[in-house]
Amino acid sequence: MGNRKQELMEVEKEQILKKLNPNQIILPVTIGLLVVIGMIFLNGNLNIQQIIAHLKKAHWIWIAAAIGVLLARDLGYMMRIRMLTNNLLSWKAAFYIVMLWEFSSAITPSVVGGTAVAVFIINREKIPFGKSLAYVLLTAGLDNLFFVVASLTVFLIFPADIFPNGKNTLSLFGYELPLQYIFGISAFLIAIYTILMLAGLLVTPRAFKWVAEKLADFPLLKRWRSDLLETADDIVLASDMLKEYSIGYWVKAWLITIFIWSARYGMVNCLVAAFTEIQLYDHFVIFARQIIMWIIMLISPTPGSSGTAEYFFQLFFDHYFPIVGFSIVVALFWRIFTYYTYLLVGAVVLPKWLKRVLSDK
Length: 361
Prior knowledge:
361 residues, single chain, mainly alpha
């Protein structure tokens, strides 16, 4: 099995290195800019001078706060990956992992994710493959669990305020789909996926292995038989490792996860407050709407939800701004902070990391 795993890792390495290519940023940047330009043209009543004048009135303390929560989020990510690995990773290694994981997520469709790349990155930081897989699956499981719990919570607390007023539908293949339906479908799929993932990882890994073995026998899945069997073996290995951890380990992991996503969502609160006056209740609603918006964005087919994110931002937060089309400007700020920055940092960090961990070309 060791030789087979090594062969698969070498094949995956070649595939993943093709994905971890700075040239991959061209497509998501192009999509995002085209969508923003399209939204500008659709808002024919834009007054550029008025928008510039309003930008000059920005509350810079809130802009500084936006940068602060961005740094806090990244620190939280590094803390979590170090904590999950029982501090086997240095802060430097954690920084590389977080930046490259964000980069791979930014160039991968949200519905697909960057799990394989993340496993590769952690494995190259001298964490055994089985453990790397366990940590990545655990991280994904914690994040998805947060999405499900948080979205259901805000749905119960703010049922009338979490969806935007007015046009709250999405046109898809000529059909108008209510955002409530899209949210419901997305939340349901994420919940099922999370339950299966965590159950397979923590509760019944051998049952997961049995299902994988049965699936591997189907002729249509013959091409992926080796991958399925290998993944099943690794799931069992990862599960045995994770069952050894104490309750305190899981509580810490969950609290850091809440901190990370609270900081991530706090970015929009800061940007909205920077350009308009809002009350405390508005902050709660804005925070709640981001949870709903993020659930919907998770099924986006574009790399890093490029284009999709900008569209939904305007849909959810446009009414907070007194100037027509100003939400497009704020959406662009939001994406610069939370998306384009990681495309740039990833493209800069990637060559240094490859030189650091790969001895061969």
